[in-house]
Structure formats: C-alpha cells, structure tokens
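During the reporting period, our protein records have gained a structure token line. One record among many is quoted in full directly below:
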Amino acid sequence: MNDHEEEKSLLDYPSRRSFLGLSSAAIATAAFAGLTANAQEKASTQKAEHDHSSSDPAQENRGLLALNPNSNTPPPTDHGDVGPLWYSFDLVKKRVEEGGWTHQITQRELPSSRDIAGVNMRLVAGGYREMHWHTADEWAYVLYGNARVTVMNPDGTMFIGDVTEGDLWIFPAGFPHSIQGLGPDGTEFLLVFNQGNFSEDGTMLLSEWVAHTPPEILAKNTGLEASDFDNTPGAPLYIFPGTVPPSLEEDKADIGGGQVASKYQYTFHMKSMAPTQEGKGGSVRIVDSRNFPVSKHIAAALVTVKPGGLRELHWHPNASEWQFWIAGKGRMTVFFPVDNARTMDFNANDVGYVPSNAPHYIENTGDTDLVFLETFAAEEFMDVSLNQWLRRVPSEMLKAHLNIDKAKAMKIPAEKLAVI
C-alpha cells in the first residue's frame, strides 16, 4: 500500500482515536450550528411578535384578548408549542335544576389534566345535593354562603357539620354523603376530584338506585311494605329544593347524638387558619394529610399574592397542579423540555394546570389581591424553590452554570419564600 492509499484508508476506515476526534469535532460543529439556528429562530420570532408582523387588521375578539394579552401575543421568552394550561368555568354549560346548578371542567375540557377534575356548584337556601357517593375522593372549598354536610363512615358512624366561606370538606371515595344550602342565601363551592375523567353526572344517586330496585326487594331489605315505596321519586333528584334544616345540634340529636358520632373530622377551617407562610408579598395556607388527616389523596394550598407580588419560581415533584382562581388577575409562565415555555393570563373563575415537575411562577398583574387554590392528587403538598437550590449549591458550581459569582449569589434568598 503506498502513502496515498494509506491516507485514503485512514479516511475511509478511521481508527478509534481518529473516529472519536472526528466525531467530537462534528458534534461540536453541529451543536454550535444548532444553538446558532435556535438563537436566530428565537430572535426572529421575538422580533416578529412585537413589530407589524403581529398585527391583525381583520376580526378579533377584543374582549377575550383584553383578558388574555399574554396568551395571544406572548412575552419574548415564550417558545415552542405547549399544550393547554387554561380553561374557564364561564365557558362550560351549567346544569340548572330547581334548587341550584352545577358545571364542571374535566379532562374533556382540559385534556392535559389527567389526575384532577373540578366542579363548581350552587345550592339555594334549603337546596339539596341529594344523598350519593363517588368512585373518587371529593375535596371541596366553600366560595360563598353556608352549607350543612353529612357523611357516613363504613362502620355506620355519622359526621354532620356546618361550613362557611373559606372552609373545606373531604368525602373519601365510596363514603355516602349529602350537602344542603343554609340561610340566608345558600352556598356556592368548588369540588375537586382525584380523577381527571371524573363526571359529576355519573355519581351513585340514592334516588336512582331505589328507582331501579324491585319494590319487593326493597321491602325485604328494609322491613317496610312494598307499597311504602310507591311515592319515591322514580327518577334522579340530583339537585332539588328543600326546607332549611333546624340547628346543627338538633340534627345531631335527631340521628342519635354522640352514640353514632364519627370520630373523624371531615371539615376544616382553611381560610381562617394561621398562614403556613406569610410575608410582604402575600401568604400561603397549606392543608394536607399532615394537618387534616382524613385528606389522604388530595392536598391543597390557598395562595394570596399582593399587587406586584410573585408566587416564586418553583415546581412540584410529587404531583401535577390544578388551580382554581378565586379573585384578582395574574399571569403564569410554565416551562417544558425541550426549550418550550408558555405564558397565559388568568382571571377569577379560571382553571390552570401545571404538569408535575414543570417549573413555573405566578405574578399578580392587577391592583387587588390575587387569590387562588393550588390542588394536587397527593397525600402531601410539596414544592421545590429555585432560590433555595441556587443558594444551596457550591458557589463555583453556580458560577459555572449561570456566571453568577458568590457575592451576587449571597443576595438570593436562602429560604423558601413561597410568595415574594
């Protein structure tokens, strides 16, 4: 083999060393080219989003755009194609019955939310959500008014309690329960279920079960006469009017008092509890199995962010986050790999969704307090703070990653603030 043939052979069949050298060079070149192309794409997109390229001289829903400015024309840091993070209860049909109404946002409306579904319900004074049970846990937050709730344990003991705005309840899956609006104007509440495809229309109703059971079987089971069931509804009651009940003490005495009383507490005063964390920027109240032991499958935080404040950059390692926005207005940016981010605007009665481990923040963009619920299909609330992480790593590591030296790093809050 002559020198020319040997040189050609090395190029055609390189040695391991030469192959690695060539590969490294090629990979570096390709990576640089990819980064450059990506940077150019971002710069081009960001420029286009904020010059005449983004103009829309034809039709626009200006009312909707006014509520969602960042959704339609996002900040320049947004990139890529991110799935749905937003929906609103104001877009779904209400099921209106005599005695109240209900509507829901499930995985059908918000496909990315596979773990949690939500129901917003109203009962007038005396109005019942009839006796029923579910295949999922029911966690509720009272948005308005007053209600009386009942739930029976499998051992036959009963819990009866009254709730008001800012209170919550939990009914475990399979536990029969009821809800009734109290005076002066009934109640409105949010229900959260730990199943994304849950439907409030598919619950186990007492009236339906009785309607589809032969009268002779009902008689044999209860010891009553078959004719005693002639006047049962024969159709689902679901939500129906009733009379405001007597005092809580009278109802408790009516069912047997302390002899049949549940040893478990199924209601909790969330809004009136001392904040788990509080600062100038706002507050966070966390309720999970650690302070509300019966809530084993749903955890939640009630967050208040002052005007200009920020729910700090963070993520949740153990569950996806399903939000309900109670008051105020804000915006949220969620980051997804690879190189994707989406910013959305939120207002009262909206629902937000963040997949587990996806980093995000929430900023108050209004001039009043922003109040929202974070709920999780999990036993415990858990979040990871970006600030804490940046302060906990060695200073040289932080400098190598973000070019922030130790003197500057010391200005980053060392403790989790939740709201800034």
Summary: The two ends are 73 Å apart (CA to CA). Residues 118 and 192 are 5 Å apart (CA to CA). The chain is about 20% helix and 30% strand. Residues 16-49 form the longest helix (34 residues).
